[in-house]
Amino acid sequence: MISLPDRDKLPQGSYSQIGTVLQRRDSYGDGQSLLLFLRDFGPHWVSAPASKTKCRFGGAIEPLIWAEFNLYQSPTRFYLQSAEVKEDFISLRCSARKLKAALKFYKRLSKSLLVGHESNNILTLLWSSMILLKENCPVDIVEYRFTWRLLKETGLAPSLQLCVKCGSRLDAEARWTNDGLICSTCSESEKNLITSENLKSIRVAALVSHEKFIEWSKSEQKPALYKEELKRLVTFFTDWD
Ligand SMILES: [Zn+2]
How far is the CA of 170 from the centre of ligand 1 (A)? Predict the structure, then answer.
């Protein structure tokens, strides 16, 4: 973790860092402003100066691109000097479903990350989720996994192992409440039940390692379950309305 003297300004000098373009804005004929999500530095707004002849950065400043960005922090501005594309995720653009999921991840992170805060775990989560889409894992399950793990990183994820009321292990079926999952002893109604088999599935989807997920998810057939679970999960974001 690198400590920054100012929340969103680095000491003057050159930097070279791997990252991705979270957002891009045209800034009045002056080129573009990019929200780069950089390893060790977290998200930063960077200017990408325009060139009169051609776009000097080519495809490297498209959203979803991962590149090594060469940057310079002057006393007043943080700007992009050059970039070398490492992964363009071009195959995701051939599937509307996958592209939409990837854009949702980027939008969610643009909304929930703090500029200037190192967030390497979340950068790794984004990279891993993009790879899962590229590997043809079922989109609904990848979206569910990304969302639970993002909530986990921000301390908001509902436990999939323990009852939110009494703390006992969830072994059999459980029930969803606004606060999280509760065990059958704590439960007074039959509403929003989740069977033990489904509970097991959503646990695996969220918790298993990246490599195991690739193998497991391809034989998992319950798109409706993950769609429904995703709807519940998004209510745990504090900025959700
Ligand atoms: Zn309980």
Answer: 8
